[in-house]
Specification:
Order of helices and strands: EEEHEHEHHHEHEHEEHHH
Protein name: Metal ABC transporter ATP-binding protein
Helix content: 25-40%
Bound molecules: adenosine-5'-triphosphate
Distance between the termini: 37 Å
GO molecular function: ATP binding
Keywords: ATP-binding, Nucleotide-binding, Transport
Domain ABC transporter: 10-242
Shape: globular
Number of strands: 9
Family: Belongs to the ABC transporter superfamily.
Radius of gyration: 18 Å
Structural class: alpha/beta
């Protein structure tokens, strides 16, 4: 079930991506509507991060192309913001929360200009939106995981993009932070932005997203959540990897029963 939209904010066309010649994404073909909150869902190793990185031009493509707002990434880069996985970043890098938030504004600057009062104000406002204004001068190495995630989000907000791609923004954050982040993402959608989020929790996915991409190396489905997050399509996505799969239908309708895929323990 792959639904396409006219005038998409993002078009991924026949995308194949490999690592060391081994394809991990095959023939992915999807379009996303404007002003939507989109969940990218699939088992570990399904290629979710790879899809986001390929859209951001961070990986070479074997075939296919990506268009954002009908243009290539190079033409529209400032309008797109990427929030990588928190664990992919060196948090010991000497920088304050404000420094990191300010990095979001760099795209506005000319080649040799340095950020000024305007950029600092934007960064402070972004930190305030994520409830981190009191930590502006704190070194990022001295923040908790959830606070680091909020700072990352502030950097994206300071960029003032139109399309946001976020790789597991809820990983390792407490429920209060998750609620605050999703509220912020909803406000961004109301302001006309599209936010694409790699997500692991099927239960909350129902509430959070209005569009869902189901991925397992190939695109299983892409469409409005109500039509896409179905037991049959989830079974197709996860195969036997969801424990108690036969109860997915029941669980999806039963609140407070998280179907959370376990992250692999990293060596
Ligand atoms: N740099 C890399 N070199 C080689 N293989 C890689 C590399 N990065 C990812 N892979 C492999 O590509 C596949 C897809 O990885 P990817 O990180 O995109 O999956 P994912 O769906 O985001 O997984 P998770 O839910 O565990 O974060 C996996 O089999 C992974 O081992």
């Amino acid at each position: 079930m792959i639904q396409h939209v006219t005038d998409p904010v993002l078009e991924v066309h026949d995308l194949t991506v490999s690592y060391q010649r081994k394809p991990v994404l095959w023939d992915v073909d999807l379009t996303l509507p404007h002003k939507s909150l989109v969940g990218v869902i699939g088992p570990n190793g399904a290629g979710k991060s790879t899809l986001i990185k390929a859209i951001m031009g961070l990986l070479p493509l074997n075939s296919g192309y990506v268009q954002l707002f009908g243009k290539s990434l190079d033409e529209i880069r400032k309008k797109v913001s990427y929030v990588p996985q928190r664990e992919s970043v060196d948090w010991d890098f000497p920088a304050s929360a404000l420094d990191v938030a300010m990095m979001g504004t760099y795209g506005q600057l000319g080649l040799f200009s340095r950020p000024g009062a305007k950029q600092k104000q934007q960064a402070l406002e972004a930190l305030e939106k994520v409830g981190m204004q009191d930590f502006a001068n704190r070194q990022i190495s001295q923040l908790s995981g959830g606070q680091q995630q909020r700072v990352f989000l502030a950097r994206a907000l300071a960029q003032d993009a139109d399309l946001y791609l976020m790789d597991e923004p809820f990983a390792g954050v407490d429920i209060a932070t998750e609620t605050a982040i999703i509220e912020l993402l909803r406000q961004m959608r109301e302001a006309g932005k599209t936010v694409v989020v790699v997500h692991h929790d099927l239960q909350s996915a129902q509430d959070y997203f209005d569009w869902v991409i189901l991925l397992n190396m190939r695109l299983v489905a892409s469409g409005p959540t109500a039509e896409t997050l179905t037991p049959a399509l989830l079974e197709k996505t996860y195969g036997g990897r969801l424990t108690e799969l036969s109860r997915v239908s029941e669980l999806l309708h039963k609140k407070n029963f998280p179907i959370r895929e376990k992250k692999p323990v990293r060596p």
